[in-house]
Design brief:
By secondary structure, the protein is an alpha/beta fold. The protein contains 8 helices and 19 strands. The model has no long low-confidence stretch (mean pLDDT 92).
């Protein structure tokens, strides 16, 4: 009596990662291609029910060409039922592009009130869409679950978190009577957990939208039955956002730092490492007379990766006890900073960072954004 599902959410088609500059427009297209890839995987895996738990679109103000590509892809697999519960980014209201088109026959759009649809004999899907960007939510779902069928809910909201984006309480889950609740809104994937008799999970977003959304992104696919939830995570992302620290201790110049960084990325992410977006943090100790131009390193990395930004958190290798005794402005500066760090241990890291920047200034050059 069970059913094989694909659980997707928070694709944010049309989102603009403005920090990518001229690549931003291409990145918007990649989110659409990721949706198409998810549909292809659903067909290959024999999925019967494709759940979209909100924020399929980043905004309702999106080009018609995107909507056409989405609906065409859905129509191409009539054997799969699609269900969308729209979220806070793409609420189902007068601005929704999905209310202005003829939707595919195999697409069910959840209304803005609690609703239920029969997917096939013995399986029902429940849910509701956002009507505006903010939703106060409720402590119970108003439609009682059918005890004779497999009951699945597709909904966008904040499980266990208060707020104005449809907060979902433990009581909502426990009293729902669902076998599985497919959630959207939180971009970090969670392992399916059981609350009462109901399994519940976030699949996370399918493409990271910044360096606060790191690593693999994808969907859940698997079987849902009465008291059974067997889901597997499928990575479907086009690119990962990755933050890496690289120890450049002893490096003599930018070329050596670049080579060390590339070696690290290739070792960890394989020969296709260049497909990803990177936040590189340089660490370790360098000699006092070495000046690191992080912008040069970033430009070198951009030639072989999709995107890279470099942060310099190296420290200068020096003998503070020796320098503080120098009869010079540098000596006075070091002596004062060491004293402040000793007197205020809770802020020691701040003083050490200030000491590093100060010593770089004495050595010759400090970037305007050195303290970022």
């Amino acid at each position: 009596m069970g059913i094989k599902i694909l659980h997707l959410a928070d694709l944010h088609i049309g989102a603009n990662e403005s920090f990518l500059g001229e690549k931003a427009s291409g990145r918007r297209i990649e989110a659409l291609l990721t949706f198409e890839r998810a549909v292809d995987i659903a067909k290959e895996e024999g999925v019967e029910l494709f759940l979209i738990a909100g924020d399929l679109l980043d905004s309702n103000k999106i080009e018609n060409s995107f909507i056409s590509r989405i609906t065409d892809k859905i129509s191409s697999v009539p054997e799969i039922k699609f269900v969308i519960s729209f979220g806070n980014h793409d609420p189902l209201n007068s601005e929704s592009p999905f209310l202005k088109i003829k939707t595919p026959k195999n697409l069910i759009i959840m209304p803005t009130v609690d609703s239920v649809f029969e997917i096939k004999e013995g399986v029902k899907v429940y849910g509701r869409s956002f009507s505006e960007t903010l939703e106060s939510g409720s402590d119970r779902f108003s439609i009682e679950a059918d005890g004779e069928t497999v009951n699945i809910m597709c909904i966008h909201g904040c499980f266990g978190i208060s707020g104005e984006h449809n907060p979902i309480s433990d009581n909502f889950v426990i009293t729902s009577g669902m076998d599985y609740i497919a959630l959207g809104h939180i971009h970090k994937r969670t392992t399916p957990r059981k609350l009462g008799n109901t399994y519940i999970a976030y699949c996370g977003c399918t493409e990271g939208l910044g360096f606060d959304e790191l690593g693999e992104k994808g969907v859940y696919i698997g079987e849902i039955d009465k008291n059974t939830c067997e889901l597997q995570f499928f990575p479907i992302y086009k690119r990962m956002h990755i933050a890496e620290k690289t120890d450049v201790s002893g490096a003599k110049d930018e070329t050596e730092i670049f080579r060390k960084t590339v070696s690290l990325l290739r070792e960890k992410y394989g020969e296709n490492f260049g497909e990803n977006l990177y936040k590189i943090v340089l660490t370790g100790e360098i000699e006092e007379d070495i000046q690191i131009d992080k912008n040069e390193i970033a430009e070198r990395l951009k030639e072989i990766t999709y995107f890279a930004k470099v942060y310099d958190e190296t420290t200068i290798k020096f003998d503070p006890q020796k320098i503080k005794n120098e009869e010079s402005l540098k000596g006075v500066f070091v002596k004062n900073m060491l004293l402040k760090a000793e007197q205020d241990p809770e802020n020691r890291v701040i003083y050490e960072r200030a000491l590093k920047i100060g010593l770089k200034a004495f050595s010759g050059e400090v970037n305007f954004d050195e303290d970022q």
